[in-house]
Amino acid sequence: MSRGMKKLISLLQIPLLVFLCSCSNSLAIDSNSEPTNSDVQRIGTNGQLISIQSDNVRAAGYDAETMVMTVQFMNGAMYEYYSVPADLWESFIAAQPHPWSSVGYPRLVQSGVPYKRIG
Predict the structure, then answer these.
(1) Which of 36, 42, 113, 119 is an S-S bond match for 78, by CB 3.0 to 4.6 Å?
(2) Which of the 8 DSSP states describes residue 108?
(3) What's the total number of domains in the chain?
(4) CA–CA distance, 54 with 75 (Å, rounded to integer)
(5) What DSSP state is assigned to residue 53?
(6) Is the whole-model pTM more than 0.70?
(7) What percentage of the chain has pLDDT greater than the value 90?
(8) Is residue 15 part of a domain?
(9) Residue 105 contacts residue 56 (beta carbons within 8 Å)
(10) Residue-number span of the structural domain to which 53 is assigned
(11) How large is the average pLDDT for residues 12-16?
């Protein structure tokens, strides 16, 4: 390696080292790590109810941080379901116009997910 090339490499190493030290946490990739707050906020509605296209569900919401899914039925009854995984929420939304019969009832009620009537 030429002397000029060595000098160029050594000059590039300093800014690169500073950059890597300043953002080392964001460069670490661990497939077994827990989702960060920014990952969690990408899924769901932060608990806010959104309109659902359905014959029996008026609105629903999901809080990924607490894993609580809220469902409001056309008759006005409202329920919270606890420890709901994000993939169930995504399946529920994708199952419109039949989210309750396709996903909600079999994966929430029949599977025994804890719930409470709140309205």
Answers:
(1) 119
(2) I
(3) 1
(4) 13
(5) -
(6) no
(7) 64
(8) no
(9) no
(10) 44-117
(11) 47
